[in-house]
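Write out this protein's structure.
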Amino acid sequence: MAIRYFAIAAGLVYVFIGLLGFVPGINVPGPPDAPQHIGVDSFYGYLLGLFPVNLVHNLVHLAIGAWGVWGYANGIPGSRMFARGLTVVYGILAVMGLIPALNTMFGLAPIFGHDIWLHAGTALIAAYFGWFHHVGVRDRVEDHVGHHTGRHESVRERAENLVGRR
């Protein structure tokens, strides 16, 4: 179940961070030597004085947070898909942050400074849960997997239904 807990924890943290980016006083103006060549300058500032953000960056954090909550709601497979996708996306963002021509995502969102190590660390943690974390049989049996109809049925309930039909 740890992979599901990773998905919900990461999802809620990213929703919270996305919302914090809109709060004046927490999103403060950057230092005088901060890059000013951001195409989207709405809500441009430094979250907690450390992490450069703007409107697009905040919306991306909210979307990733929603994706994490979706992953949790869709059981172990959804959580694993979230972790793997997060690894790829944040790995790419960490590398882009190191390249001066790409560190603003073509003027859309700042991904330089402290964002680089944060994105790289997030990608490493997500990679562990996406590819290396072992999910035990007990976790698979107790996992509730969501269906498109919104009905949730555990693997154990499905097995009981199949045995009962024989």
